[in-house]
Amino acid sequence: MKKIGLYSLVCLVLIGCGGGGSPATGGTIDPSDINLTKDIQDGKVSGYNSNDSIEDQYLAVINYVRSLKVKCNDPAAITGPSGKDMYWNPLLEDAAEEHSEDMKLSDHYAHDGSGTSNDITGQTFTPARASKFNERISRNGYTGAMTAENIAMSASKPGKQPANYWIKVMEGWMKSDHGHCSNIMNPQLTEFGMFESRADVNATGWYKVYWTQDFGGQ
Question: Are 144 and 216 in contact (CB under 8 A)?
């Protein structure tokens, strides 16, 4: 038994915040047709190797998705291909790690930080408060003009999820109608970092995994 939750948020600094498969009519791909596991098995995902570092695996998959003509099923409705590759940014990875660890340690799931001692950025304010995603990105040193965030949590019982379950999370983000797909496909967002934190089984028998994907653009 598994359940998964997905949230997305995008922010333009100084402007404000707001919330393959078979081709469909017109040559575009409906997100519901995306099957990344099959595409990897069929050798369609250029540069993907399960023996590579997890960062390289993330890059191969996200750039494969950005190469497709996907019409996102969310309010922004961005249609790919994006025309630009994503690049790994360690500062965005640091921000993603901070939030994934906070969610795991605090058993908290939201874009806002927990406001506890596990919310590192939130603790820098006087008085301490829950951090915002763009505040975490900024505190970790990223200075790009545009930022965005996707998060996901998945819980399973009685067994743990496989190490490559993040591929299913990527599919879930692409099929979501809450802005995740447009964050991934947005040509103005060209840098990202991603981090996964796994919680041990809790008293109810659920294993939980938290993902944060932070994006930036100059």
Answer: yes
Please, are residues 216 and 146 in contact by the beta-carbon 8 Å criterion? yes
Q: Which of 173, 149, 192 is nearest to 70 (CA)?
A: 173
The pairing of strands 191-199 and 207-217 is antiparallel
Strand partners, 29: 23, 70
Under a CB-based contact definition with an 8 Å cutoff, are residues 83 and 186 in contact?
no
pLDDT single digits (tens) 176-194: 988 999 999 999 999 999 9
Q: Say if CB 214 and CB 95 are below 8 A apart.
A: yes
Phi, psi angle pair for 96, to nearest 5°: -65, -40
Q: Is the peptide bond before 75 cis (omega within 30 degrees of 0)?
A: no
Contact between 113 and 121 under an 8 Å Cβ cutoff? The reply is yes
Both structure tokens of 87: 């690049």
* pLDDT of 19 higher than 50: no
DSSP letter assigned to residue 71? B
Whole-structure pTM value: 0.88
Residue 126 has pLDDT above 80, yes or no: yes
Residue 166 to residues 19, 28, 62, 188, 218, Cα–Cα distance (Å): 23, 24, 12, 24, 27
Distances (CA, A) of 136 to 48, 96, 104, 127: 30, 8, 16, 16
- Which is it for strands 146-156 and 16-18: parallel, antiparallel or unpaired? unpaired
